[in-house]
Amino acid sequence: MDTSDLSGWTRGSRPDHLFRRFVFDSYAQTRRFLDDMQAVCDACGVTPQNVNFGTTYVNVTISAEGDSLSPADWEAARRIDALVRPASEATQP
Amino acid sequence: MDTSDLSGWTRGSRPDHLFRRFVFDSYAQTRRFLDDMQAVCDACGVTPQNVNFGTTYVNVTISAEGDSLSPADWEAARRIDALVRPASEATQP
Questions:
Q1: Is B55–A47 a contact, with Cβ atoms under 8 angstroms apart?
Q2: Span B10-84 CATH architecture
Q3: Backbone torsion region of residue B35, taken as left when φ is above 0, otherwise alpha when ψ lies between -120 and 50, otherwise beta
Q4: Which of A1, A78, B8, B88 has the greatest number of beta carbons closer than 10 A?
Q5: Which of the residues in chain B have pLDDT under 50?
Q6: Membrane spanning segments where (chains A, B) (predicted)?
Q7: Which residue from A27, A51, A54 is facing B53, i.e. has the nearest CB?
Q8: pLDDT tens across B72-85, in order?
Q9: Strand ranges (DSSP E) for B1-93?
Q10: Per-residue b/e over A43-62, b at no fewer than 16 CB within 10 Å?
């Protein structure tokens, strides 16, 4: 599975998971992203286990339900990335 | 200001804030609560600074923008409570 285009995400373990922080210019943008992300997760059949957001940021963690991330988890991460790609990409702190 | 009816919330400082954990039976309930909570915050003119959610829980922090919580912050907490009052109330762990 080609995961090279998911460079913005950090991979972790116990459980296997992907993490990324998205930063926005306004609360309205944050809300729109949250709604769009929910739609992506619904479409991929992935339930975000741990999402943390404030006025202008969203921390997304996609955790494996089994031993390792599923193709659906990777696809959800890819589609979530696509939600922000045209906008200024958030860089990890 | 009578805050006795906000017993489910934990008060903290630096900054002055209220915290409460809400637990749900399903992701659908969690999503409905998130949407309803956003509507309450909009109506009160309060922007949640730090919300953390997973499949069946939402941790809500309402932080003071100034030195102390405003009447709108307290009202938002009260209305958020009302969203879950008929359901089984989440108890702090």
A1: yes
A2: 2-Layer Sandwich (3.30)
A3: alpha
A4: B8
A5: 87-88, 90-93
A6: none
A7: A51
A8: 999 999 999 999 98
A9: 10-12, 17-23, 50-53, 57-63
A10: ebebbbbbbbbbeebbebbb
Q: Which residue of A has its CA nearest to B27?
A: A47
Contact A55 B48 (CB under 8 A): yes
User: Could you tell me the residue ranges of all domains in chain A?
Assistant: 12-84
**What span, in angstroms and rounded, lies between the C-alpha atoms of B79 and B66?**
21
ipTM of the complex: 0.73
SS3 label, residue A2: coil
Q: Inter-chain contact B52–A48, Cβ cutoff 8 Å?
A: no
Name every chain A residue with its beta carbon within 8 A of the beta carbon of B51: 52-54
Between 3.40.50.1370, 3.10.150.10, 3.30.1360.20, 1.10.10.10, what CATH number should domain A12-84 receive? Answer: 3.30.1360.20
